Every structure is written in structure tokens, then in C-alpha cells.
Amino acid sequence: MTGAPAAHRTACHLRAGGGELRDARRELNSPPPSTPRLLTTPVVALAGDRDILRLTPAPDIRWGVELGVFIGQYTSRVPKARALSSVAGYTVVNTFAALGWPASVVIGPQLVTADELPLGARGLTLTAALDGRLRQKANTSDLLFDVATLIELASSRTALMPGDLITTGTPAAISAERLHDGSSITVAIKGIGELHNTVADRTAPTTVHVRPESGSRQRQD
């Protein structure tokens, strides 16, 4: 159902690693992989739309907009032709990660069911902005591996459970600059919604302050 807040707890977070959009591969000057590289990320800290982020003091935090795919049913060794039947819906994800530090994951602002989007969530524009300056722009049609392929591969390696989250990788212009107190971050996927967050005191010992807002949010046109 469109407008329902995305879940703030996930059983497992599988990330398509290595820059799984064509623009990211061109920026990294590396050939596309022959198969997806999946990284299992324990969810250490979750946040939602409008939450204040208290990130680790790591000097090189990478972040970027990603398409999030929520699994809706038990899925094991599903063929690609039937993989999309396992999708409960799609959301916007922004993962903050630095080598040697726990990751913080922002999810939301809502879960849009698969029947309300193009098949496999293709053709959707992704954007990310830092302090009002556009840092990323891409399209889900530029994914090196589509959603069905990622589910097929992931389910061949581990059984997927309802609530598991697969993210598809981030576009080019990965933001590696040092974030500062008061940094305003907006990531969006057309047809799903926008995530707005602000970075607070980065010397604070906590990783993130989770403050899920009550009520539903409107879908982005």
C-alpha cells in the first residue's frame, strides 16, 4: 500500500557491491563484473526520513542513493523468471559506510508496492544532493543487474525471508567528502519518495539517533 512507512527493522541487508550502475563503473574506470557481488551488511543503526544523523567520526564516509527491494515471502533458489513475485515493494535507501566502521542505513519514506511501479522498478530517476547541490543522478534502467537477477543470485546463496532488504548499488559521483555538522542530505527516487536528513555533532559517541515519525507520507509524483 502506497503511503505506508517503510519498515524500520530488517532481518538482513544485502548490498550489491562495487558500483552496480553503469555510470559508477565508468567513474571507477573498471570493467563491469560478470556477476553481481553481494555483501551482507548487519543493520547496526537504522534511521528514517527527517531523522538527525550522528555518524561515526571516520574521515571518509561514503554514501549515496540506492533502490531498496523488500522481500515479501520466503524465497530460496528462485529462478529469474519468478523472482519478482517475491518482492513486497520498493523504497529509498541511503547507506553511510566507512572502512572499519559500522554502517548506518537510512530507509524510507514509504514502501511502494510492486504493482504501483514499472516491472522491476525500471525507468525511475535516482538523485542525491548535499547542501542543495546535486551530487548524483541516474536511472534504475542503468543497473548492470536488474532486480530479478539480484534476487535469483541472493536466493541461491541464502534463503530470503520476509522483511529482508536488498539494495542495488549507488550511481556515479559517490560522495566521499567529509560531512560536517549541519550538512543537509536529500536522496530521492521518482515514484517512490525522498529522504531528508541532517548531520549533527560527529564527535558524539552514538552512531545514529533513530526517531521514526508517525503517520504516512505522500508519494512523490
Describe this structure in words.
- It is globular and about 45 Å long.
- The model is unreliable at 4-11 and 205-221 (pLDDT under 50).
- The two termini are 16 Å apart.
- Strands 2-1-10-5-6-7-3 form a 7-stranded mixed beta sheet, with helices on one face. Strands 4-12-11-8-9 form a 5-stranded mixed beta sheet, with no helix packed on it.
- By secondary structure, it is mainly beta.
- The chain has helices spanning 22-28, 80-83, 147-157, and strands spanning 13-17, 37-41, 45-47, 52-53, 65-71, 87-96, 104-113, 125-130, 133-139, 165-167, 184-189, 193-199.
- The chain has 3 helices and 12 strands.
- A hairpin with a 3-residue loop joins strand 11 (184-189) and strand 12 (193-199).
